[in-house]
Amino acid sequence: MQKPPVNWTNTLLFTLTPLFAVTLVPWYGFTHGYDLYEWSVFVLLMGFCGMSITAGYHRLWSHKSYKAHAVLRFLYALGGACALQNDVLHWASDHRRHHAHVDNDDKDPYSAGRGFWFSHIGWILRHYESGKEDFSNVKDLQRDPIVAWQYKHYLSLVLLMNIGLPVLLGFLNGDIIGSLLLGGLLRLVLSQHVTWLINSIAHIWGRQPYSDASSARDNGLLALVTYGEGYHNYHHTFQWDYRNGIKWWHYDPTKWFIRGCSFVGLTSDLKRISPVVIETARLDLQFRRAAARCESLRNADKWQQRLEQEYEQMKSTLQLWAQHQQAWYEAKTTELQEKWNHWERLQIRDSYREVGFRLKIQRQRWHQLIQSFPAMHAASPA
Ligand SMILES: [Zn+2]
Ligand SMILES: [Zn+2]
User: Whole-prediction pTM value?
Assistant: First the structure.
């Protein structure tokens, strides 16, 4: 099959910039050296580009998982141009298509099914049919004046942010070349590859706790370099959630940033998926996997029955817990407090805690049951 024509602008840009970065940056470091100011500019601009892509392009514009004040949207638009990852409209349109047709080699612009190279960078180096411009899925974004403004002035913004800003910052420090190399070139190449890792590695390497319907994976290590975007299995399962790492200890600086901004009124309407829905998704997947493993056991029927019984019990306790949680939430909300007297409220609280305790015990038993299957499998001759 004949390959589509090469996109020469992108090919030259994405071959020459890394080439210059690995040669010129160390050369200048050895001959002139970089100072703390230049390294600080590098780190700050890395963060600015990274956050503009993850919090802005991705979680705000592509998924609408929260609302953002115009000031923040303006900064995201500048940071996105600085990251040189195309304008918001192209980025979000490709990304929405990626979610809608994930792993479909003909429709997903960076389908992981076409291999590491293609999903990482290959998709931008040629004019592939799957990457054709089609803004029909971003009509809502075209109405955002900041998005429209960035689209119109994209090239000027790219030059301003990638050359103008580092030159200015370097001028203030008395070394324009050093600032251009670290804050401009090295930052550009690294921030681009970091984003692309989410399309490549996060669809290859990691766990699938929430869904196995796509190739997306959760990878805590990848989250460390991608501002929290490594929890990609969760993200593909629940794309409207403003968080990617849902546990408090999951390293997701984008989530912390969005939440932090909500305290000063820069963000609002932060969407979260309810814990019961999330746990049910996990439970369903664990059940299907355990049921498949149990098929090859001796007394498969007996184990299957046991598994189903525990699964149904877990599901109903989860539902019950959700109802009690809702009741307790209503009881403690001040406006509604007149509905209940003090003792009734205590009763609601205690039964919520009781169901929570029952759920905890049941969860432990469920985990013991599903974890015992592979061991039994090894011990029992088929
Ligand atoms: Zn996404
Ligand atoms: Zn993905």
Answer: 0.91
